[in-house]
Structure formats: structure tokens, C-alpha cells
Design brief:
The structure is a single chain. The chain is an all-alpha fold.
């Protein structure tokens, strides 16, 4: 059986493109896609953009500030 340290060492030694794929797969396993919710959010985003373009909502300008 491979140890955690050995697994990490092996993963780090992989080519960048394979490591990127591995990271993405691991993240997906922690936060699986919820297709129905994703569809609803996409629909809501499209509605909001359409409302702004049609002038049905008033936009409020914002400032980008960084507080330290």
C-alpha cells in the first residue's frame, strides 16, 4: 500500500497538464456539480442581464477599494 507521502511525491512529479487534471478531479470530488442548480443560476443570470439591457433595473456604480 502506498503511503500518503509517497502519493503526494508521485503526484508532484507528474507533468503540469496531468497535475492540473488531477487537481480539477479532486476539487470536483469535493464539490460535485449540481446540474439543476447550475441551470437555475444560469437562467437567473441571463434574466438579470436582460433586465439591465432593457432598462428594467437601475444599476448602481460601485468603486473598487482595497482595505488593508
Amino acid at each position: 500500500m502506498i503511503t500518503t507521502d509517497e502519493l503526494i511525491s508521485e503526484a508532484i512529479s507528474l507533468p503540469v497538464d496531468i497535475r492540473t487534471l488531477l487537481v480539477n478531479k479532486l476539487l470536483e470530488s469535493l464539490n460535485p456539480a449540481q446540474k439543476e442548480i447550475d441551470k437555475l443560476w444560469a437562467k437567473e443570470a441571463e434574466k438579470r442581464v436582460a433586465d439591465v439591457k432593457a432598462g428594467r433595473v437601475k444599476t448602481i456604480p460601485g468603486e473598487f477599494t482595497v482595505s488593508v
